[in-house]
Specification:
By secondary structure, the chain is α/β, with parallel strands linked by helices. The chain is built from eleven helices and 15 strands. Helix 3 packs across helix 4, helix 3 crosses helix 6 and helix 4 crosses helix 5.
């Protein structure tokens, strides 16, 4: 799987952009605030229907414009697939696949599998549990349509239950309280399915991450991830009933998989609490590399890797280890310079210079000797 071309209209700082990508390594370089990350954001949006940094579509549309468009053509098993996305300021986005509109934005998951790696991901271990749950949910939603269905329904019921808790909070309506049991039974059903699938996902990741992390640390460390469900066993319904009075007071659902977490251990030491910054970042890198391998196994294809200025956050050893792992996968990398690639003698297929919303193709040779010559000139 790889992206063949991308077209943008009124997306962030791009009035119009039409860019063809190589199926190998593509470098987008330039100064900060020129629009490099915007290109990655548009690809991620086309693959997941979500932005990794904007809460609303209106934030993505170019200033003083009412709508924006994204068109991505990907190749899957040598067959072209076209994704069109129409972003509107005051209405829901429209999405079409091969010219056929889809009813729900969530139906886009799994068509274009992307793995996104940004500097913020290097802090996934020390940051709050919301980011770690988001990592699990976004990956599983791309890989498992059943999980996506269960998660969407679970979130709908959580929202309805929380609204009911707020309504009950304004009085002592017995009829409203009686309806709470109906929501709790449904919530427990979908919640149990999420817990089971998340647990399997962590088991699958652990089988892969063990070898990757040992290689990254020259066999010095063994990394293990532990799933920490908010509820142990199949007693979510009983816990929801037990916590009702607390939920009435807080007007929010306080138990369930929306409060799950994962932890990372090296030799029994919890990296969240006691790991050094270097250990945490290496573990985060191992997690992303494991994500790529897991996607390969599950979809029997190779995902698209988006690296957003990650190399500048890594030391030379981790830079080299990351670059060496990028064989046979389309990678689109943003950076402010090409030094890291030249120093690591890393082969690049195409280089693009990004300047204030314009993209200029610089090199398409596949040999680092040519890159060096280009930089020196």
């Amino acid at each position: 799987m790889y992206i063949q071309s991308l077209e943008l209209s009124n997306f962030r700082n791009y009035s119009n952009l039409n860019i063809d990508f190589d199926n190998g390594t593509n470098i987008l370089y330039g100064n900060n605030a020129q629009g490099k990350t915007n290109i990655l954001e548009s690809i991620y949006l086309a693959g997941t229907s979500k932005s990794h940094r904007a809460a609303r579509d209106r934030e993505i549309i170019k200033f003083n414009e009412q709508e924006a468009h994204i068109k991505v053509i990907i190749k899957k098993n040598s067959i072209p697939v076209r994704i069109d996305m129409h972003l509107k300021k005051n209405r829901s986005k429209g999405i079409a696949v091969n010219g056929i509109p889809i009813r729900k934005a969530s139906e886009i998951f799994g068509i274009c599998n992307v793995v996104f790696f940004s500097p913020e991901d290097l802090n996934i271990i020390k940051n709050g549990p919301t980011e770690r749950r988001r990592f699990i949910d976004l990956e599983l939603c791309q890989l498992d349509k059943v999980y996506l269905h269960n998660l969407v329904n679970y979130n709908k019921i959580i929202n309805q239950r929380n609204k009911l808790l707020k309504d009950i909070g304004f009085g002592n309506d017995t009829e409203l309280k009686d309806t709470l049991d109906v929501w709790d039974m449904q919530l427990a059903d979908y919640g149990a399915r999420l817990i089971t699938r998340r647990n399997q996902f962590i088991c699958d990741i652990n089988e892969i991450i063990y070898g990757i992390h040992r290689k990254l640390t020259d066999n010095r460390e063994e990394l293990n991830i532990k799933y920490e469900p908010n509820i142990i066993g199949n007693n979510l319904y009983e816990e929801l009933v037990r916590c009702r009075e607390k939920d009435f007071k807080l007007k929010s659902t306080t138990v369930g998989p929306h409060r799950d977490d994962i932890s990372f251990f090296i030799g029994g030491v919890d990296l969240r609490k006691y790991g050094s910054q270097g250990q945490q970042r290496t573990a985060a890198l191992s997690l992303k590399l494991s994500e790529i391998e897991l996607v390969k196994l599950m979809i029997k294809d190779i995902p698209i890797l988006l690296l957003d200025d990650v190399l500048s956050e890594l030391d030379s050893s981790r830079q080299r280890q990351l670059l060496e792992s990028l064989n046979n996968i389309q990678t689109i990398i943003t950076c402010t310079g090409l030094d890291e690639f030249i120093e690591n003698r890393f082969s690049i297929d195409t280089i693009y210079e990004v300047i204030n919303g314009t993209v200029k193709r610089k090199v398409s040779t596949g040999a680092e000797k040519q890159h060096r010559k280009e930089v020196e000139e």
